[in-house]
Amino acid sequence: MDILLQQIINGLTTGSVYAIVALGYTMVYGVIQLINFAHGEVVMIGAMVAFSVIMAVVGMGLPLPPVVIVLGGVLAAIPVCMAIGYLLERVAYRPLRHAPRLAPLITAIGMSIVLQHLALLIWGRDPRAFPQIMENTSHAIGGAAISSVQIAIILLSVAMMAGLTWFVYRTKFGIAIRATAEDVRVAALMGVDANRVIAVTFVIAAALGAVAGVMVGTYYGIAHYTMGFILGLKAFSAAVLGGIGNLAGAMLGGILLGLVEALGAGYIGEFTDLCQWPVARDLLAERCMADGHVVLFGSNYQDVFAFLVLILVLVFRPSGLLGERVSERA
Amino acid sequence: MARALIEALNLEVHYGGITAVKGISFAVEEGELVCLIGANGAGKTSTLKALARMIPSSGEIHYRDDRLDRLPSHALIGKGLALVPEGRGIFTRLTVAENLAMGAYHRNDKGEIGADLERIYAMLPRLAERRDQVAGTLSGGEQQMLAIGRALMGRPQLLLLDEPSMGLAPLMVDKIFEVIRTVAAQGVTILLVEQNARLALQTCTRGYVMESGRITLADTSAHLLADPRVRAAYLGE
Ligand SMILES: Nc1ncnc2c1ncn2[C@@H]1O[C@H](COP(=O)(O)OP(=O)(O)OP(=O)(O)O)[C@@H](O)[C@H]1O
Ligand SMILES: [Mg+2]
């Protein structure tokens, strides 16, 4: 098996999901300079709602094709998440629009805890296993394998990114969003109602998050009320990597982060196998003879890479890969 | 006398403890080209921002049958009021064409918008050449033209201009003022704020002089240009 190619395929898959979630962080940040920490939880709720719908439909035993059932889950998750995104903005953030920056930031963390516990109440504390209804056929390409779920995730993500780019750059409302992001008060002089633009931004971010949630749930086959935390933190890292506030940056950052993570996970075991390093091999001669390997960090250290990337970016290029300016705001 | 298009009564603007505008009253009638001159910090920008509802103020602002002081900023362009802010306020990350499109954001008459766009490109050919350029890369004079063109895309009946000559070379200032005269001749009512008092008074029919938050003189441009106080304080004589 070609490990390099395989990890690239896996990285592109998770990277696509990170990109879609990262877009949600970056859009909101671009318009109101708020890091909506509750966005990861919106993604989680998307996964949970889809899980419930898929379970219900499967439970009823309707003779529907699996794709249709999953699609039904997506179509249910989107409006639920949109409503949550709207409510978050309306109830939690709007009253703090002109408060010192720390206030909405702490509120965002609070909302993320509230949503987590809401999910805990509804879906319980145990991981919920997505029913494996999709026939996950594997296709061989050049010594590696790509599953139909992976293909679907990548294609769907690309389609969403293209759609969002078209909306933001080619439609009247999209141009108004960008104008508002640059100067709310001048945009208002043109007749743009900032509240509406901000609400729509939250709703779009949440809709993207809903789809991402279903993609994650289907890919890993599992949903849990805490899954939004790590996923959100990784996507946020991806947004910072690309340059927060920058749409293309979020897409690039997401894909790159997925690749770094997958390649890191694929090679870290080999790299930290002490038996291949001269001095260590001599010191551990006995164990190396017996086991062949003494691995310091295994692929379960995968999550470390996202945060390593985040720290490196913050230290060496705080404005991110495509960011124009360093933001001094909290 | 025609009925005033816009009239401010006892307008006051406060910034924390500072009172920048101290209860001024003035009016601009339909079709007029009126200027508001005064030294740095006199309160001219604060006055225009209050009219455009960008900052809170007290007092009444009448505009036709509406009370502007009860409306949000984003409702004004629909009523025909546009402001070209101090420092131009163009969207630097948007292209020239996108900035102009934003000017027409509140309109739904697609065909007419296209026609207006062509008219503005004809009047300001530099913008036409640079329509797909990111606006932040324009020169100062081009940015000012874009700011005015963008305001005109909203088809305003009342245009508030805040120091359109600021930071521009004399040749560019002449061009900008030529545009202002053309727009006024087309029937748009204009309230012009300027530091360049001579040019402003030569362009407008009437003027107000503002000093530390108060209107101290109000007269025709001819009288103001001849007034010894104006000559001493603003015309450098
Ligand atoms: N945001 C603000 N916060 C506090 N004070 C302000 C603010 N904006 C203006 N001021 C003060 O209000 C007063 C009037 O300012 P304003 O900008 O209206 O003057 P101006 O006549 O437009 O001056 P200039 O010709 O320099 O543009 C000044 O003393 C200024 O310092
Ligand atoms: Mg000023």
Care to count the β-strands of chain B? Answer: 10
> What's the multimeric state?
heterodimer
pLDDT below 50 for ≥5 consecutive residues: which ranges of chain B?
none
Order of secondary-structure elements of chain B:
EEEHEEEHHHHEHEHEEHH
In which range does the helix fraction of chain B lie?
A: 25-40%
The main pleated sheet of chain A reads as: 2 strands, antiparallel
Main structural class of chain A: mainly alpha
CATH class membership of chain A: Mainly Alpha
Q: Which small-molecule species are bound to the chains here?
A: adenosine-5'-triphosphate, magnesium ion
CATH topology of chain A: ABC transporter involved in vitamin B12 uptake, BtuC
Task: Label the CATH architecture of chain B.
Answer: 3-Layer(aba) Sandwich
Report strand order across the widest sheet of chain A.
1-4
Sheet with most strands of chain B: 6 strands, mixed
CATH fold topology of chain B: Rossmann fold
What does this structure look like?
- The complex is a heterodimer of chains A (330) and B (237).
- Chain A has helices at 3-32, 39-60, 66-93, 102-123, 148-170, 172-182, 184-189, 194-220, 227-242, 247-271, 278-283, 285-291, 302-316; strands spanning 128-129, 138-141, 144-147, 222-223.
- With 330 residues, chain A is mainly alpha-helical.
- The longest helix of chain A has 30 residues, at 3-32.
- Chain A is globular, with a radius of gyration of 21 Å.
- The model of chain A is unreliable at 326-330 (pLDDT under 50).
- With 237 residues, chain B is an alpha/beta fold.
- Chain B has a single domain (4-88, 149-234), classed as P-loop containing nucleotide triphosphate hydrolases (Rossmann fold), CATH 3.40.50.
- Chain B is 35% helix and 28% strand.
- Chain B is built from nine helices and ten strands.
- Chain B is globular and about 45 Å long.
- The A-B interface holds A 172, 175-176, 178-179, 182-183, 185-194 and B 52, 54, 72-78, 82-83, 85, 89, 91-94, 98, 101-103, 105-106, 150, 154.
- The complex binds adenosine-5'-triphosphate (ATP) and magnesium ion (MG).
- Magnesium ion binds next to helix 1 of chain B.
